[in-house]
Amino acid sequence: MISRTTDSTSDPDARRLLIIDALDMDDMDAIDIILSGLSDSSPKVREEAAKAIGDFPGEHMIEPLLLLLDDPDEAVRKAASNTLADCNQVKLLDYLDEYLKDKSSFVRSSILRAVKPLKNNRSAEYALKGLLDSSEAVRIESIGILGYLKNPDYISSLATIAVSDNSPNVRRVAMGALGYSSSEVACSALVDGLGDISWQVRAESAATIGKIKAPSHVCNKLIELLENDEYWQVIVKVLATIGAIRCISSVNVVSAFLLHQEPNVRKEAAGCLGELGDQSALAALEAALHDRDPDVRKIAAFAIAKLDRSFGV
Fold it and tell me: Gene3D superfamilies given for it (predicted)?
């Protein structure tokens, strides 16, 4: 007879293997064994059980995993958090009140992370409060919930934290979360983000402006950033966005980036010129056909072909 618990042996490695073997058993036998493993004395067994229970989703897994968010072992805590985030259990919403009062920021951020995929409006009020939490991780998960919900009522709150939070990581995530709105409030925050002290925030702002197809008056700000930013990671995002929203006035500035030392920038510049569709870029693109990087040459050729099709050549 198969034991329904992991306490049948004193060897933690054997108990861990029992958890792994349970994955091939019938649901009820497996669940009993794995649930037993969640309270095992060995952190390796608890970690394995926290991962394995995800293969048998249901309300039975919620409370034991929530308890493991306070486990003394970091690997166990992370395993429990990851499984909760993937379990897609609406019942988790009933635990928000209790677990968002926990003194541990890991616990608070984990419960928010777990309810985010549900896209349930019940989580919005907790996420709005979470924007004011002292923990960066909690604020980031709160932003994620509001971004998932795509409700225009939350744009103002997202825009505020995007430009005012003291953490660049939080500002970056908030800029990205604004990508579901082309409202004036969202666009204003994103333009402000182009001047952020953090290059990661500037890059995210530029990329998001491209996603929402921001109005053409943003082009001047993008061109200014393109000419002055020292980070190639920002430059490639700006070039992609300039092409996406077709900032035609930028052709000469963009063409100069075909000579940039970073090949990723030269590739993006070539692609951007193809999107802009201006014949005045043809000479610069033809020169790029001799670039030392084969990918730059390839994209330049595509861009030239695109221009030729646009003008019926």
Answer: Leucine-rich Repeat Variant
pLDDT in tens, 144-160: 999 999 999 999 999 99
Q: What sign has the CA pseudo-torsion 87, 93, 94, 99?
A: positive
Domains and CATH numbers, the chain: 1-87 (1.25.10.10), 216-313 (1.25.10.10)
Distance separating alpha carbons of residues 131 and 129, to the nearest angstrom: 5
Taking each helix axis from N to C end, the angle separating 155-164 and 184-193, rounded to the nearest 10 degrees, works out to 10
Cβ neighbours, 10 Å, residue 119 = 11
Element (H, E) at 253: helix 251-256
Neighbouring CB atoms inside 10 A of 139's CB total 25
Give the CA distances from residue 63 to residues 6, 80, 99, 164, 293, in Å, rounded to whole numbers and listed in that order. 19, 11, 11, 36, 55
pLDDT single digits (tens) 267-276: 999 999 999 9
- Go through 165-194 and write b for each residue having 16 or more CB atoms within 10 A of its CB, e for each that does not: bebbebbbbbbbbbbbbeeeebbebbbbbb
